[in-house]
């Protein structure tokens, strides 16, 4: 729907690289699936290998195309994240509100991002699986500390909203509690990230070939240093004679 | 962390430099189970891009100068950080830099670029123009006054407008350029001179005065001295330069990958390889290789894990030595962060065209028997430094001590080449690089890939070699690096 730029004033479109991090089984891939396809698979298999997905997010004055890198499945070797957060403008760090250890892992990722990723990276901290605790939501969810082995399916909230929020405030992160299952707050997370990306770090679409073609390249628009490798496909023979 | 012990793979690839990363990606998309290892804790291997703090660690690791430096790829690394005057521009935070160990210039018709498009990897990359070529005065002729840096005319109109050549020289130059455009079809005009020094050929066959030789030599990007540059090696490279101009836009013919040179391509290949199912593990090298059976190799990894694989591939730096190693190229290189930015080096390539982020400056030696210093300049647009600075990547085909002196003088010449303000260097890294090549019998299941070549103009050799390795492993002949769009990542329109 947004793909045919209006002849008058097409909204500027930019790509934003987003890296998805968090402990296994906190619902990273499900969050993305909800955002990208507005779907949910209840008993999703763990993601094997890494995944890459894109989705547009329409803001009033511009369109952000998220390029989402999901390290899923490969965190076991702790080697994929460094190449995923290289040059990433945003990161989504997910924990499971019914599993205290997942917040510890999330904090570990955030520290690593602050140490290693691009200085201006926008980080959102997300507590997922809100649907699991919705019944008891009203009261101050809280039981004892430990994750008792007897705990059935972790249906009890183990991380309070306040704990997540306070930590996020301290570290200057965006913060949401979401449910990939119900869709609660999922779009809000991505919209908030899109809004938080500074205008200056947006330099036209990264995905040169597709997208708003003419805005992309070589047309001499504002700050244009990007070269379109597909230019030759449009103009003249592929090989040889540029002479 | 899980263990790899006891796992079996179709292919194990050692090192995440450009050749290995392209191979890993292509194999992961051909249905092979791929384990991609790197003994370093960063991606990119010999083509890595480093932040300032990573560069410091890297330099410490590659500081050797003695015996052991003879056969290793990198050695003699030293960093010099210069004092900043009160109120002057200082170095920014370490992560504001992404310094390229491989700042290669990629010509428009390079096979690699075509493969990046056919594999859709280009959607994840950003390329920028290497706009102008410049020629500085030879080093010794600089008597301390400002050196002159002149732009090398890049096309016919440029030559007409140029006022450094007289009319006769211009005519000869035109004649030569016409010849080069299809030199292959006129072997009689040059083949008997193929082994002769290129300057002699220019002078005798085309009547080109010595004053024009430097400009033409600069287009080859060959690291050799003028008198050791053969006609047969120079002609194809000048043709490559001229034929590339205009392919991706008016006024330029070569590009650089944003964010740190070849490192970025290698990383994007690794990311895509991971999406293709490859498993990536850093900080793990290969300690020993033995044959497990007829068609399986047993590997012992640096932490003692034992794995088996049908194929093993990597560059010599990442494999235990088995065959004979020889040095096929030597270069002293430097990386200098300078301020204020050298905006004069990045003039627009054409009206309304792209803003170049790269430029080439050749500083010839005082004699035609000594190699020139070649400098690739990157503006902050390359994402490699803050906007108040530029990065100069120097290289010269000389041993370290001599090379270092030449590099320093050449960088100084570039900094002093403009009158407006006092350019100076904030930080520099100087090191020596050998190109180590290892031959290994073709009968084994171990493939030793050559490192990316040292020459600044990226040749197709890396691409060809990776393709050959892919063919050998998959048994396919067609379809290398040609991927269909994947679900969720197709082009938008």
Could you explain the architecture of this structure?
- The complex is a heterodimer of chains A (243) and B (493).
- With 243 residues, chain A is an alpha/beta fold.
- Chain A has a single domain, classed as Rossmann fold, CATH 3.40.50.
- Chain A is 26% helix and 19% strand.
- Chain A has helices at 28-37, 81-85, 100-116, 161-171, 186-196, 213-216, 231-234; strands at residues 13-22, 51-58, 63-70, 90-96, 122-128, 174-177, 226-227.
- Chain A has a six-stranded mixed sheet, with helices on both faces.
- In chain A, a hairpin with a 4-residue loop joins strand 2 (51-58) and strand 3 (63-70).
- Mean pLDDT of chain A is 76; it is low at 1-7, 139-151, 204-222 and 233-243.
- In chain B, strand 1 (8-14), helix 1 (18-28) and strand 2 form a beta-alpha-beta unit.
- Chain B is globular, with a radius of gyration of 23 Å.
- Chain B is built from eleven helices and 19 strands.
- Chain B folds into two domains: 8-50 and 260-323 and 439-474, FAD/NAD(P)-binding domain (3-Layer(bba) Sandwich), CATH 3.50.50; 94-258 and 328-434, 2-Layer Sandwich (Guanine Nucleotide Dissociation Inhibitor, domain 2).
- In chain B, helix 1 packs parallel to helix 9 and helix 1 runs parallel beside helix 11 (461-474).
- Chain B starts with 7 loop residues before the first strand and ends in a 19-residue tail after the last helix.
- Chain B has 493 residues and is an alpha+beta fold.
- Chains A and B meet through strand 2, strand 3, helix 2, strand 7 and helix 7 of A and helix 3, strand 7, helix 8, helix 9 and strand 10 of B.
- Chain B: This is Rab proteins geranylgeranyltransferase.
- Chain B: It comes from Cladosporium halotolerans.
- Chain B: Belongs to the Rab GDI family.
């Amino acid at each position: 729907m947004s793909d045919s730029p209006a002849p008058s004033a097409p909204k500027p479109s930019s790509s934003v690289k987003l890296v998805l991090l968090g402990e296994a089984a906190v619902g990273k891939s499900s969050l993305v699936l909800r955002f990208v396809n507005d779907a949910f698979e209840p008993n999703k298999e763990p993601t094997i290998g890494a995944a890459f997905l894109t989705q547009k997010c329409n803001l009033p004055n511009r369109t952000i195309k998220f390029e989402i890198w999901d390290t899923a499945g490969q965190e076991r070797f702790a080697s994929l994240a460094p190449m995923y957060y290289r040059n990433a403008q945003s990161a989504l760090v997910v924990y499971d509100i019914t599993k205290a250890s997942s917040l510890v892992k999330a904090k570990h990722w955030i520290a690593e991002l602050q140490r290693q990723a691009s200085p201006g990276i926008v980080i959102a901290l997300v507590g997922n699986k809100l649907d699991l605790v919705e019944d008891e939501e009203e009261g101050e969810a809280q039981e004892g500390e430990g994750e008792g082995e007897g705990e059935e399916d972790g249906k009890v909230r183990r991380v309070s909203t306040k704990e997540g929020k306070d930590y996020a405030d301290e570290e200057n992160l965006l913060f949401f509690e979401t449910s990939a299952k119900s869709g609660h707050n999922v779009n809000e997370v991505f919209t908030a990230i899109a809004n938080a990306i500074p205008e200056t770090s947006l330099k036209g679409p990264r995905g040169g070939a597709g997208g708003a073609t003419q805005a992309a390249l070589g047309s001499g628009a504002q700050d244009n240093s990007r070269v379109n490798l597909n230019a030759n496909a449009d103009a003249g023979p592929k090989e040889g004679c540029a002479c | 962390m899980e263990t790899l012990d006891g796992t079996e793979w179709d292919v194990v690839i050692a090192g995440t430099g450009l050749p290995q990363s392209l191979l890993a990606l292509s194999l992961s998309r051909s249905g092979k189970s791929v384990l991609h290892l790197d003994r370093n804790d960063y991606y990119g291997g010999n083509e890595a891009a480093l932040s300032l703090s990573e560069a410091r660690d890297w330099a410490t690791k590659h500081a050797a100068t003695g015996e052991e430096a003879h056969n290793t790829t990198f050695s003699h690394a030293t960093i010099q950080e210069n004092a900043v005057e009160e109120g002057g521009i200082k170095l920014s935070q370490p992560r504001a830099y992404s310094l390229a160990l491989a700042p290669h210039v990629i010509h428009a018709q390079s096979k690699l670029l075509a493969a990046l498009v056919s594999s859709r990897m280009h959607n994840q990359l950003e390329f920028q123009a290497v706009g102008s070529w410049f020629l500085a005065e030879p080093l010794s002729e600089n008597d301390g006054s400002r050196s002159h840096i002149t732009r090398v005319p890049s096309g016919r109109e440029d030559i007409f407008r140029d006022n450094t050549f007289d009319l006769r020289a211009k005519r000869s130059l035109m004649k030569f350029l016409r010849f080069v455009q299809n030199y292959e079809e006129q072997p009689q005009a040059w083949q008997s001179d193929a082994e002769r020094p290129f300057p002699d050929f220019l002078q005798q066959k085309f009547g080109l005065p010595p004053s024009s030789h430097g400009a033409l030599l600069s287009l080859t990007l060959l690291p050799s001295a003028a008198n050791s540059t053969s006609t047969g090696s120079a002609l194809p490279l000048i043709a490559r330069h001229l034929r590339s101009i205009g392919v991706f836009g008016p006024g330029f013919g070569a590009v650089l990958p944003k964010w740190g040179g070849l490192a970025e391509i290698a990383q994007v290949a690794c990311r895509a390889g991971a999406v293709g199912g490859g498993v990536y593990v850093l900080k793990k090298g290969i300690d020993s290789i033995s044959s497990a059976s007829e068609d399986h190799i047993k590997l012992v990894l640096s932490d003692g894990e034992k794995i088996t694989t049908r194929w093993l591939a990597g560059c010599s730096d990442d494999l235990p030595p088995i065959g004979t190693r020889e040095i096929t190229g030597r270069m002293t290189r430097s990386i200098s962060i300078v301020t204020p930015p050298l905006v004069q080096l990045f003039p627009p390539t054409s009206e309304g065209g792209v803003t170049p982020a790269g430029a080439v400056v050749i500083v010839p030696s005082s004699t035609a028997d000594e190699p020139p210093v070649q400098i690739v300049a990157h503006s902050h647009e390359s994402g490699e430094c803050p906007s108040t600075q530029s990065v100069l990547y120097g290289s010269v085909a000389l041993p370290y001590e001599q090379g270092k002196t030449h590099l320093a003088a050449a960088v100084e010449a570039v900094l002093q080449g403009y009158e407006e303000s006092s350019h100076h260097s904030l930080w520099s890294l100087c090191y020596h690089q050998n190109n180590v090549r290892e031959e290994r019998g073709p009968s084994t299941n171990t493939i030793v890939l050559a490192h990316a070549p040292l020459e600044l103009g990226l040749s197709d050799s890396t691409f060809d070699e990776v393709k050959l390795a892919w063919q050998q492993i998959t048994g396919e002949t067609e379809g290398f690096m040609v991927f269909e769009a994947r679900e969720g990542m197709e082009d938008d329109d």
